[in-house]
Write a structure and sequence with these properties.
mainly alpha
């Protein structure tokens, strides 16, 4: 029989951590005289109790996790944390159903940014802070998972980064725990820098804290109905563009930057391709706006660049309504949803390195066709790519697109229109946030969708965030056999 106790012990620790995180919105609501402090008190106590029981009941079974236990822990922890993270939404004065509360929590903890709250400006500050905290905690969780868990599980080609994450820093940071702590310190440091920066640029203390957390986590939850456009500040918009880019670069590179200087940060070809694609996408969108609106001003450049970077990185902030720009920029933004940022960052999507691997495979195939007797090896970052990684990446592409198609068909079967079904499936599985169309576009919310659609989209968010295989492996019957 598969021993679940080590996984339950870790889940208990995570639930206790979640309960401690509820103290922040509890304190904010209590200080503001908002009755929702009782919501966080009761939800926090329940979460703490369950987490404590799981820890105490399974503490004697602490051992090194097996591969199967790690698969179970990864998916179960995100699901169970979401179930308890939904409690403040369920009990709050917003009067959400559990479906809506679970959707909001899943969107937060996976750093997706889709929302069912129709009047964000009127929501209690505690709830707004809780949404931001979920994305911030989810962001650091995603980084640690990408550095420590996915390479070990050989998911989607992530084993490419096993050597770089642990061997490259072996002399300076010999243990994985030290790497995790180092990444955590850098993550917290960036958050503090963006908090102070946004506050200095004109945001209030609270708004600056919320947006600092959701910028570095590339999550996109805002404290205003109009997102970043509500603040009407070019300085804030530019600073957040930089923050979204910072959150989309592998955090392991920041550790190398601390040790070896700036060269280390920019020698990774994944970063080169990310910057190049983001720049090209922004240039195309800005050029289109210039030609169609006959307005080449600073506002146009910032608006086009901001929305392009936001969609590509999966942050989901908006400045203005990009749906009124015309078909060409919408097509660009739709495809950039799938690209995402770098592996080992808080960003989403398929990830840049997989496109690089696929490109190397295609180039290699052309060379073989031109020189049938030649021997050619595809390379990534100037290193040969192992056949196992090639197969893993190609399988990921196939499974990603298949999951997208199945999710879109399922949403269409529920009666959603073509645009809502297609872009809703894309924004969920790519963890972007806003989609396109009259219902779930940048000016809308996911609240009008039927409950069944919200559960499907929640499943899509989980699939995309955990890189598909981690979740789908649990559906394979042979996984559960001894």
């Amino acid at each position: 029989m598969l021993d679940f106790r080590p996984a339950l012990f870790v889940i208990g620790i995570l639930l206790v951590t979640l309960a401690v995180a509820m103290l922040a919105p509890f304190a904010v609501d209590l200080a503001a005289g908002n009755n929702d402090w009782k919501v966080f008190a009761s939800a926090g106590l329940l979460t703490l109790f369950v987490g404590g029981v799981l820890m105490l009941a399974n503490r004697s079974s602490i051992s090194q996790l097996t591969i199967r236990q790690t698969f179970i822990l990864t998916t179960a922890s995100w699901l169970i944390l979401t179930m308890f993270a939904a409690l403040p939404f369920l009990l709050s004065e917003l009067e959400m159903t559990y479906t809506d509360a679970f959707f909001e929590a899943m969107s937060g903890i996976t750093t997706t940014g889709s929302t069912v709250i129709t009047r964000i400006d009127a929501a209690p500050e505690g709830i707004l802070l809780w949404r931001a905290l979920l994305q911030w905690l989810g962001g650091i969780g995603i980084i640690v998972m990408a550095v420590a868990v996915l390479p070990m599980l050989r998911v989607g080609g992530m084993q490419l980064f096993k050597v770089e994450a642990f061997d490259t820093l072996e002399k300076g940071l010999p243990r994985a725990g030290q790497i995790a702590v180092g990444i955590g310190v850098i993550y917290l440091g960036f958050t503090l820098v963006w908090w102070v920066g946004l506050w200095t640029l004109g945001m209030g203390k609270f708004d600056a804290a919320v947006h600092a957390m959701t910028t570095i986590a590339t999550g996109g939850y805002s404290s205003a109905d109009g997102s970043i456009g509500s603040f009407k500040s070019h300085g804030i918009e530019i600073f957040i563009i930089v923050g979204m880019i910072v959150g989309s670069i592998p955090f392991i590179l920041y550790l190398q930057f601390v040790r070896n200087g700036a060269y280390t940060l920019f020698k990774d070809t994944q970063v080169h391709y990310f910057i190049a694609i983001a720049a090209l996408g922004s240039l195309l969108v800005v050029t289109w706006l210039w030609k169609t609106q006959d307005d080449f001003s600073l506002s146009t450049v910032i608006m086009g660049t901001f929305n392009t970077i936001s969609i590509m990185t999966g942050t989901g902030y908006t400045v203005g309504d990009y749906q009124v720009w015309g078909a060409f920029p919408l097509i660009i933004l739709f495809f950039l949803m799938f690209v995402g940022g770098c592996a080992g960052s808080t960003s989403c999507g398929i990830k840049i390195f997989r496109f690089q691997v696929l490109g190397a495979i295609v180039r290699n195939q052309f060379l073989k066709m031109l020189h049938p007797h030649g021997i050619f090896l595809p390379h990534y970052n100037h290193r040969p790519i192992d056949n196992e990684i090639i197969l893993s990446v190609m399988n990921f592409f196939y499974l990603f697109m298949l999951s997208f198609v199945v999710l879109a068909l399922a949403l269409g079967a529920l009666g959603l229109d073509y645009m809502t079904a297609i872009t809703g499936a894309a924004t969920a599985i790519c963890n972007v946030g806003p989609a396109m169309g009259p219902i779930i576009g940048p000016a809308g919310t996911f609240e009008p969708l039927p409950d069944a659609a919200k559960w499907l989209l929640s499943a899509g968010m989980l699939l995309g965030r955990l890189e598909l295989f981690t979740v789908l492996m649990l559906l394979v019957p042979s996984f559960w056999r001894n």
